[in-house]
Amino acid sequence: MSTRYIILADTEWEFDWSAPLAREHRATSAVTASPEADVRFADHNIPLGHLIDYPIATDPQAADVLRQLSEDGRSIVGAQFHAWVNPPFDKVVTSFNSWLGDLPRGLAARKITELTRMINRQFNIAPRVF
């Protein structure tokens, strides 16, 4: 039987969404819970896709956890974008320029390129989900 669906999980850094946007808050320890979630889905033969952002992609321990999960051939790693924590940092952090669609096209392209480069570096793959 072929895969008909995949569950996508935002696997992102720990940020207080009620606080102002800030680049310096980049903890990633919550990713250690990912293997437990992965097992629950795997027990039902459901693939899990971890959509990761720049802080996760650049943290060696977080990337190692997700790399091990994606080695099963069922789970995948994809990209998720948060402009204010993804370089290049050419703009002051504001709620307006925190969204991909509100960035100048060239800056958005450079940020996506950098995120893709980091995912490729950590996982030796090009993300196919964004």
Explain what you see.
This protein is of the alpha/beta class. The chain has one domain. The chain contains four helices and three strands; from the N terminus they run E-H-E-H-H-E-H. It has helices at residues 34-42, 54-58, 60-70, 105-123, and strands spanning 7-11, 48-52, 76-79. A three-stranded parallel beta sheet has the order 1-2-3. Helix 1 (34-42) links the parallel strand 1 (7-11) and strand 2. The longest helix is centred in the last third of the chain and has 19 residues, at 105-123. It is globular and about 45 Å long. The model has no long low-confidence stretch (mean pLDDT 90).
Strand and helix map with partners:
Layout: E1 7-11, H1 34-42, E2 48-52, H2 54-58, H3 60-70, E3 76-79, H4 105-123
Parallel strand pairs: 1-2, 2-3
Question: What structural keywords apply?
Answer:
alpha/beta, 130 residues
Please give the count of helices.
4
Unreliable stretches covering 5 or more consecutive residues = none
User: Nearest-angstrom radius of gyration?
Assistant: 15 Å
Terminal CA distance reads 26 Å
Structural class: alpha/beta
What string, H for helix and E for strand, traces the elements in order? EHEHHEH
What number of structural domains do the residues give?
1
Helix content: 25-40%
Percent of residues in beta strands?
5-15%
Compute the average pLDDT.
90
Reported for the largest beta sheet, the result is: 3 strands, parallel
Number of strands: 3
Q: What would you say about this model in short?
A:
Helix content is 34%, strand content 11%.
